[in-house]
């Protein structure tokens, strides 16, 4: 199966940067993405705004954050297992959902701490050979998966910002 050009471009970035950067350098990029994510959900957001969907096939802020926060935890498990040279199957199941009443800034901070804990667990000498395929970007090693968290956070932070800028967004 041929990879879409955009997916091939992202895969190339993930693989190249994973080979080039240290875990500390990747972590700095992931950390910056958490700042951007926090900014995207900061301010007073009403329940109507949190559940607003720009279109029938689009996600609300609640849906975006539910997906992203559970995905980050799952990706951390992948990073740690691959870093230890273990192969595993990627569990893509969602981990419940958030409600409009949840404090998203707190949830992002808790999620960030969970990612930090996973990064601290990484051995000094990383195994880069085991890979696990991503549904869009093909096989990735542990450092590429860690860097994926950055792209995923930034992508969904952008999605939240776009939702909040829609003309029909509840004011």
Structural notes for this entry:
This protein is mostly helical. Helices cover 60% and strands 4% of the residues. The chain has 6 helices and 2 strands. A two-stranded antiparallel sheet has the order 1-2. β1 (132-134) and β2 form a beta hairpin. α2 (23-40) runs parallel beside α6. The mean pLDDT is 87.
Would you report the number of β strands? Answer: 2
* Low-pLDDT stretches: none
What's the tally of helices?
6
Distance between the termini: 45 Å
Helix content: 55-70%
SSE diagram, text form:
Layout: H1 5-20, H2 23-40, H3 47-51, H4 61-83, H5 104-120, E1 132-134, E2 138-140, H6 142-165
Antiparallel strand pairs: 1-2
Helix pairs in contact: 1-6, 2-5, 2-6, 4-5, 4-6
Key terms for this structure?
single chain; 171 residues; mainly alpha; two-stranded antiparallel ribbon; 6 helices; 2 strands; 60% helix; 4% strand; globular
How would you briefly describe this protein structure?
The protein is 60% helix and 4% strand. It has 171 residues and is mostly helical. A hairpin with a 3-residue loop joins β1 (132-134) and β2 (138-140).
